[in-house]
Amino acid sequence: MSKKQNKRYTVAVGDVTVGSDHPVVVQSMTNTDTADAKSTARQIYELHQAGSQIVRITVNNESSAAAVPEIIDRLAAAQCHVPVVGDFHYNGHRLLQDYPKCAEKLAKFRINPGNVGFGKKKDQQFAEIIEIAKNLDKPVRIGGNWGSLDQKLMAKMMDDNARQAEPLDSQSLIEKALIESVLSSARQAEELGLPADKIIISCKVSAVQSLIRIYQQLQELCLYPLHLGLTEAGMGYKGVVASTAALSVLLQQGIGDTIRVSLTPEPGQARTDEVKIAQQILQSLDLQSFKPEVTACPGCGRTTSEFFQVLAQQVSQHMDKKMPEWRLTRPGVKDMNVAVMGCVVNGPGESKHADIGISLPGTGEAPTAPVFIRGQKTHTLKGDNIGEQFIALLEEFVENHY
């Protein structure tokens, strides 16, 4: 298990603690119209049920700012107390001033130095947001994105770079500008009176190697907690693989305090998928456990039947459905390992190493399925409803051991 490098500031975001030696926090963001309080509250609830520990919402206009108190109240009525973060761009200073209940209800403000304001208004509007955060004792995430860099800063750095004997290439210059943008804004926030332990920073880009380089530098340059994630990671396999590649390298080096997998949902894809992927990254690295692991073989010519694949899916779906309940009543179950194997080659061995496992008959093998519980063969299942029998044994195992 990787340990975090350097002791970072500890930041409280609602009831969630970020930074220092605390576990990495999984975040997500809604894609509903925030002004639709009912739909937004429902999606926040679903994301939290899936395991998101902090949820961010867009607050981009008066109707969305006005809806925030109702959203939080709806969540409270549903016994959902997940911290909700407001994402502000361009007009955040005005919305926070004009809708004080919105500012009070949010657990954190998220701003981008490049989108706070322009020209002479930028510093003033930034100061207004920081003043509100300071007065309400709210943390702020100062987040840079390469699509919204501070253009004045970028122009100055380009001019300075051009005068160097060995100027940086454009990519390196952008990375340097991003780092300077967020760190200078964080310093400015401290000068305005916001405590260091109320600041989280991020520098999100959409290229894996660039993200790794940026966060390796940030880790050495500051003690603010770091929020990791590719911005615009993409759809499908591309988004999943790119996010996993980038986050895994950094997390393995002990870098990162909160993470988000910013997937573009495919048509019909659940928003909660990004939460499950973030959890799986942390769980695969042995950094945290969120739910039982299912070990299943990939299948081969010995397993031409789809039965073991169907059962592995049924078991996974069953545990996903039960986890909101188990998380409260049987928290230890998150460390359970379940094996669903397809034939006698690796099946018995893998099943013996799991807390509970089943070795299904492969093609042409005897139509029996031994079940192993913590290394001991305890049952032999037969018939047309092996799947139902095994899930019943799984439920009994959880009941007796967790």
UniProtKB/TrEMBL annotation:
Residues 293-395 form the IspG C-terminal domain. Its EC number is 1.17.7.3. Residues 10-278 form the IspG TIM-barrel domain. GO terms for biological process: isopentenyl diphosphate biosynthetic process, methylerythritol 4-phosphate pathway; terpenoid biosynthetic process. It catalyses: (2E)-4-hydroxy-3-methylbut-2-enyl diphosphate + oxidized [flavodoxin] + H2O + 2 H(+) = 2-C-methyl-D-erythritol 2,4-cyclic diphosphate + reduced [flavodoxin]. InterPro entries: Dihydropteroate_synth-like_sf (IPR011005), IspG_bac (IPR016425), IspG_bac-typ (IPR004588), IspG_C (IPR058579), IspG_TIM (IPR058578), NO2/SO3_Rdtase_4Fe4S_sf (IPR045854). Binds 1 [4Fe-4S] cluster. Keywords: 4Fe-4S, Iron, Iron-sulfur, Isoprene biosynthesis, Metal-binding, Oxidoreductase. Pathway: Isoprenoid biosynthesis; isopentenyl diphosphate biosynthesis via DXP pathway; isopentenyl diphosphate from 1-deoxy-D-xylulose 5-phosphate: step 5/6. [4Fe-4S] cluster binds at residues 297, 300, 343, 350. It holds the Pfam family GcpE_C. Its cofactor is [4Fe-4S] cluster. GO terms for molecular function: 4 iron, 4 sulfur cluster binding; 4-hydroxy-3-methylbut-2-en-1-yl diphosphate synthase activity (ferredoxin); 4-hydroxy-3-methylbut-2-enyl-diphosphate synthase activity (flavodoxin); iron ion binding. NCBIfam families: ispG_gcpE (TIGR00612), PRK00366.1 (NF001540). Converts 2C-methyl-D-erythritol 2,4-cyclodiphosphate (ME-2,4cPP) into 1-hydroxy-2-methyl-2-(E)-butenyl 4-diphosphate. Belongs to the IspG family. PANTHER family: 4-HYDROXY-3-METHYLBUT-2-EN-1-YL DIPHOSPHATE SYNTHASE (PTHR30454), 4-HYDROXY-3-METHYLBUT-2-EN-1-YL DIPHOSPHATE SYNTHASE (FERREDOXIN), CHLOROPLASTIC (PTHR30454:SF0). This is 4-hydroxy-3-methylbut-2-en-1-yl diphosphate synthase (flavodoxin). It comes from Marinicella pacifica. The gene is ispG.
